UniProtKB/TrEMBL annotation:
Subcellular location: Cytoplasm; Nucleus
Taxonomic source organism: Pogonophryne albipinna
Family note: Belongs to the class-I aminoacyl-tRNA synthetase family.
Catalytic activity annotation: tRNA(Tyr) + L-tyrosine + ATP = L-tyrosyl-tRNA(Tyr) + AMP + diphosphate + H(+)
Domain of life, per lineage: Eukaryota
One term of GO molecular function: tyrosine-tRNA ligase activity
CDD domains: tRNA_bind_EMAP-II_like (cd02799), TyrRS_core (cd00805)
Main location (coarse class): cytoplasm
Keyword ATP-binding in record: yes
Protein name listed in UniProt: Tyrosine--tRNA ligase
Location of the region described as Disordered in the Swiss-Prot/TrEMBL record: 339-366
GO BP term (any one): tyrosyl-tRNA aminoacylation
One Gene Ontology cellular component annotation held by this UniProt entry: cytoplasm
UniProt KW keywords: Aminoacyl-tRNA synthetase, ATP-binding, Cytoplasm, Ligase, Nucleotide-binding, Nucleus, Protein biosynthesis, RNA-binding, tRNA-binding
């Protein structure tokens, strides 16, 4: 289709339904010579919701206009924004975003082979990018950085330095992704103008900026991942969609801040080209609109009832969501969704004490326990005890830790050599037959005759030093050293077990790293010690 369009027709497709365009003349110049390169970035924080169909529909427009489109999963930005995404969950959330964004695009008929997907940390940790961050930080004032992020970065009484870095990194992404234009919501306008002001100072080109309007949520305010009542999740059931739409703000005749009407304008019409109101013949019967303004005019005149509008939007929305729901019926994607976004009730009910860092005697938060992935770099028999191993384990520190374990009767030296294991690192060191053990190697065990013991297994691809956490307790900090008199480890250990699926758990919550679950090979229903 794009080959048959003139530059003016392509520009019309690129800019339709946008609230504002900065640098339109530059876009016209590029279109006279070649296709436009556009990038859209999304910070991998809360779960994407139906408002994400608004940028998806624009991405469909860009592709129809022949644009080269890059989608950036901004994982580093997600962490910098007041730690909206815990570091331990970044990788899982990137995987979730990639799966759900691709499912959205497929549901609206966008061919994925014409898109380029990039993860922020794939290039934002490079030497060149880091040097540019320092160069930019020597030019941007605190006032400009704070002002640029005011509508995007979470605002708190005592802001972190990371929030001031966020706008500058987003500006640099334009250069490192080699785009002609960045696309985003109008709430990012101040970040875009910061990029236009400072990138030329680094010797980089000033880009164009394409801005979508902010779509009202179901409550009439901005749709937000953090406000449950304002949004419909992409995996909500048809029943949940009906309930949320029923409660949505949609006052008769009111076309201002009407999230239901805005969804029709910015999603349904661009994708379908028309919208049908289904209603009883005594209320005028069905009517199909091919121009949004006619629907808006009828709603303002109260010729269209809010109930009929909601029912028709419900049908359109479920058509878009059904393929996404179906895709996420797979066990793998259900597991990904649950691990990337642990239950809030678990975190709220138990996480109130999950701050760690010393805690009270009654604080049994598992986040107080410092469990890490380790690699056994050497293993030999204890010189004074044939029943003990003496291991050197790399736990991500400058020097390996010496660990004394009783695994001699259960695992051979050859099996342990170079093996990835789990290590408890903040117990008080103890002398065992004259040698100080600086940590504890964690294993699954089943009592009986004979007793069976297996080291726990971290996920494939893990590295020494990777933190192990309990889902729902991702953000708590471990004690520097557990006080043996308080028996914190003993109390936490009492609720550690192996599930029937051989997954390590604490009170039915999974033990995890950023890469997935902690498991053992065969000891279903075992204990952990």
């Amino acid at each position: 289709m794009a080959d048959q369009l003139s530059p003016d027709e392509k520009l019309q497709l690129i800019t339709r339904n946008l609230q504002e365009v900065l640098g339109e003349e530059k876009l016209k110049q590029v279109l006279q010579e070649r296709e436009v390169k556009v990038y859209w970035g999304t910070a991998t924080t809360g779960k994407p919701h139906i408002a994400y169909f608004v940028p998806m529909s624009k991405i469909a427009d860009f592709l129809k206009a022949g644009c080269e489109v890059t989608i950036l999963f901004a994982d580093l930005h997600a962490f910098l924004d007041n730690m909206k995404a815990p570091w331990e969950l970044l990788e899982l959330r990137v995987k979730y975003y990639e799966q759900v964004i691709k499912a959205m695009l497929e549901s609206i008929g966008v061919p994925l082979d014409k898109l380029k997907f990039v993860k922020g940390t794939d290039f934002q940790l490079s030497r060149e990018y880091t040097l540019d961050v320092y160069r930019l930080s020597s030019m941007v004032t605190e006032h400009d950085a704070k002002k640029a992020g005011a509508e995007v970065v979470k605002q708190v009484d005592h802001p972190l330095l990371s929030g001031l870095l966020y706008p500058g990194l987003q500006a640099l992404d334009e250069e490192y992704l080699k785009c002609d234009a960045q696309f985003g919501g109008v709430d990012q306008r101040k970040i875009f103008t910061l990029a236009e002001k400072y990138l030329p100072s680094l010797g980089y080109a000033k880009r164009s900026h394409l801005m979508n309007p902010m779509v009202p949520g179901l409550t009439g305010a901005k749709m937000s991942s953090s406000e449950e009542e304002s949004k419909i999740d992409l995996l909500d059931s048809a029943g949940d969609v009906k309930k949320k739409l029923k409660r949505a703000f949609c006052e008769p005749g009111n076309i201002e801040n009407n999230g239901v009407l805005s969804f029709v304008q910015y999603v349904v019409f661009p994708l379908r080209g028309e919208f049908s109101i289904k209603r009883d013949s005594k209320w005028g019967g069905d009517k199909t609109y091919t121009v949004f303004e006619e629907l808006e005019k009828d709603f303002a005149a109260e010729s269209v009832h809010p109930g009929d509008l909601k029912a028709s939007v419900e049908a359109s929305l479920n058509q878009l969501l059904d393929p996404i729901r179906k895709k996420f019926e797979s066990p793998e994607l259900r597991k990904l969704s649950n691990t990337a976004y642990p239950s809030k009730t678990k975190a709220a009910g138990k996480g109130a004490k999950a701050g760690g860092g010393g805690g009270d005697d009654d604080d049994l938060s598992p986040s107080r326990v410092d469990i890490r992935v380790g690699r056994i770099i050497s293993v030999e028999k204890h010189p004074d005890a044939d029943s003990l191993y003496l291991e050197k384990i790399d736990v991500g520190e400058a020097e390996p830790r010496t660990v004394v374990s009783g695994l001699v009767a259960f695992v051979s030296q050859e099996e342990l050599q170079d093996r990835l294991v789990l290590v408890l690192c903040n117990l008080k060191p103890q002398k065992m037959r004259g040698i100080e053990s600086q940590a504890m190697l964690l294993c699954a065990s089943i009592e009986g005759e004979p007793r069976r013991v297996e080291p726990l297994d971290p996920p494939e691809g893990s590295s020494p030093g990777d933190r192990v956490f309990v889902e729902g307790y991702e953000t708590g900090k471990p004690d520097e050293r557990l006080n043996p008199k308080k028996k914190v480890w003993e109390k936490v250990q009492a609720d550690l077990k192996i599930s029937e699926e051989c997954v390590a758990q604490w009170k039915d919550n999974q033990l995890m790293t950023k890469l997935g679950q902690i498991t053992c090979k065969t000891l279903k229903g075992g204990n952990i010690s």
